[in-house]
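Hello support,

Our group uses your service weekly, and this is the first time we've seen a run hang past the timeout. The protein is 3-hydroxyisobutyrate dehydrogenase. I'm not sure whether the cause is the sequence or the server load. Input pasted verbatim:
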Amino acid sequence: MEANEWKVGVVGLGNMGGKVAESIVSKGFNVIVYDVNPKVTILLKEMGAEVANDLIDIAAKSNIILTSLPNTDIVREVYETILNKVEHGTIFIEMSTIDPGYIKDLDTQVSNKESFLIDLPVSGSPEEAKNGKLVLMAGGNKEVINRLQPLISCFGEQVHYVGKPGDAKAVKVVNNLMTMGNVAVAAEAFSIGLKFGIDPELLFNVLNQSGGRSHHFSKRFPNALQRDFEGRFSVELGEKDVSLGLDLSKSLDVPSPIASLVQQIYRIAKSEGFGQEDIVAVLKLYEKWGRLVN
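Update from on-call engineer: The timeout came from a worker crash unrelated to the input. Re-ran successfully.
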């Protein structure tokens, strides 16, 4: 199947999936899209994408199907619907952050259909997806992944091949577990400096040049200083990903006490009403606990 024969179906047009779809459409590929919320298809239709009526419609019209969905249960439901409706030889690209164990099972189901599953979770922001700057972790048939490079390069700048389907999801879960811990510890430490009376901008500038900094401290805390907590990657999704990490550690019999504490921080943030705000909104918890705000 040559690139000019590709019919790319994209299922799930949320923050990440929508920008991935925009990037693919903008590069001239034949794209069919579907989301349970029809409002998010409007822009893509204006850009030239076809909007499918339902999952069965997109399965019938696509020979490559890319999924970017919120959780394991939704991914399972989608694949149960579409797997029996596609032609043999279909390529599935699964980009969600979900249970690695399920992806192993899904790979068996896809193989039984004489098709291919590429496990392709991402690291980066929706804006980076739109601009082709994502970091991608790839698991699956390496030859197929290489053939897909013209498509993958629409939204990804780096592709790290890590092994079989499920392996890439495991790497992504570990990455996000580290991310949520980094942001929570940074928020706790930063609030101590604020309570002592250090100017917030000065504190950020010094820490951002010092050994305690992290990628997400540098990326997200400038927004927090501007009181911009727009949900680029929400507290709710962060808590979900920590839960995935804890489930993985339990299945492997690896103690993870720090991750358990991190999960509680994000759960408390959700209960305080910050669930749809960016993960850096955990700083607001510490501001409240330290009586830094009225």
